[in-house]
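Feature request, filed as a ticket because there's no other form

It would be nice if the structure record came with a short human-readable summary line next to the tokens. Right now we just get the raw output. Example of a typical job, pasted below so the devs can see what we mean:
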Amino acid sequence: MSTAYESICSQQKSWACQRGIRFDEDGYTLSLDDNLLLRLLPEVRKEFKAGKGDELGAAGIRGKMQALHSSSALVVNIFQYWANRDISEIASACGTPHGMTRMRFERTYPTTLGGTPPHLDVEFSADSLKPLVIESKFTEPYRRHTKRAIKDRHLDVPGLWTGLTECEKLVRRIREEERGRTSFGYLDAPQLLKHILGLTKAFGASGFSLLYLWYEIPSPEARSHRTELNEFMNLIGQEVEFRQMTHQELFQAIRECHGVSEGYIRYLTERYFSHLID
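Raw output as currently delivered:
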């Protein structure tokens, strides 16, 4: 029986083969444009280039976004379409109040710890509304080896978690669990806690909304991931506004958006969501 990760990769390769898109043995397209619905806009390319995720690669080195199973490619294929349209439509589909006016990709939110700051995939903002920040996942929950550790510096700096009592408790619990077997095998809870820390430093604990957007493929792994996600949400309580949504739920909301093009819906359907269409 194939794993959820293998199923996603197989589906993506099948999609590419049906369209004559060439890819290497690792599932990376030979051209970035082949992996995207629309070529990267100059401002979007600049935002990804400024990040530290190596999404675009360098001269002679392929970028992570060229992977058929790339989470950043999924983000670009869903959200960049709206860059020159009514951004409030896609933001509202993500659950924000109507009125968002700005959308940015690969945003960074430094903490006081130095090093590489937390990177999040999309930020919606407006002068009169609290920002909505999105952490998007595609295959990551189904690859257990990608989990990050909690380092000593996340607990040794006095006042680092001020206003985030429950989050700090969870950080300490995970740090202790790392001596043995973590209870979060599918959800990258350490990464989410670091994101919350960076966002709190930027906006205050009540000044942002964090949306965890993940791709659900019917499987035991997805059920375990959802269980861990619910546990995480219960543990951090109401300290910050944290929500979860699947990419499948977002796609259904996008289909209801006013004036959305058939080509955009067809691309997303055929590539990512054919299992949702009768």
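Something like this underneath would help us a lot:
The CA atoms of residues 54 and 63 lie 6 Å apart.
The first strand starts at residue 102 and ends at 108.
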